[in-house]
Amino acid sequence: MIEKINLNNILFLDIETVPEEENFNSLDAEMQSLWDLKTQYQRKDDFTPEEFYDRAGIWAEFGKIICISVGYFTIKGDIRNFRVTSFFGEEKKILKDFSNLINNHFNQPQHLMCGHNSKEFDIPFIARRMIINQMAIPDKLNLFGKKPWEVPHLDTLELWKFGDYKHFTSLKLLTKILGVPSPKGDIDGSQVAHVYYVEKDIDRIITYCEKDTIAVAQIFLRLRREDLLIEEEIIHV
């Protein structure tokens, strides 16, 4: 079925998140207590709440979005391009710019969004942060009342599962086994908070996020048995 989807109708995406505050001690006492309760199961007796705080970016209640990268195909005749751009800066502006893109350019019934593990992470995280920032959720993100077949989201992890709900395959592993050029540069997800708060190098994070977005598109092409993108076809805007 995915072979029948018009590539021009898909918005590929990836997000980068960090703890909402730079360190545990910056949280007020109530949030520290709530973090303690939220992470008890994951921490067990191995970590204190403070030691575990560097992972707060995984939860929308304790993290924030610092970059959303998107990519989309423009195919005219035999000319194929993949345009990539990123939203970064203050979180509310990131979410507003992303929302405007969806509402103005990817709001039709045929339009879809696609990421890797995006149904479990990226899409819910974006929607929750929009609510926290008191913003309206675009229809493409608001799944309330929608039947499973009405959800306008594709997920390369889900496509790779083939119905096996226990299975998880990382983006890095999937690119390797499918012969897709590795998306990973000089950092990985566990280092994003350090690069953001300590090194204050948002450009490295944008590059990392955009590489993941391109990798998702490449995997989608591979699942359709189509030629991978070459550098000349990728346009950063």
Automatic annotation (TrEMBL):
<protein>
    <submittedName>
        <fullName>3'-5' exonuclease</fullName>
    </submittedName>
</protein>
<feature type="domain" description="Predicted 3'-5' exonuclease PolB-like">
    <location>
        <begin position="62"/>
        <end position="224"/>
    </location>
</feature>
<dbReference type="InterPro" id="IPR019288">
    <property type="entry name" value="3'-5'_exonuclease_PolB-like"/>
</dbReference>
<dbReference type="InterPro" id="IPR012337">
    <property type="entry name" value="RNaseH-like_sf"/>
</dbReference>
<keyword id="KW-0378">Hydrolase</keyword>
<keyword id="KW-0540">Nuclease</keyword>
<dbReference type="GO" id="GO:0004527">
    <property type="term" value="F:exonuclease activity"/>
</dbReference>
<keyword id="KW-0269">Exonuclease</keyword>
<dbReference type="Pfam" id="PF10108">
    <property type="entry name" value="DNA_pol_B_exo2"/>
</dbReference>
<dbReference type="InterPro" id="IPR036397">
    <property type="entry name" value="RNaseH_sf"/>
</dbReference>
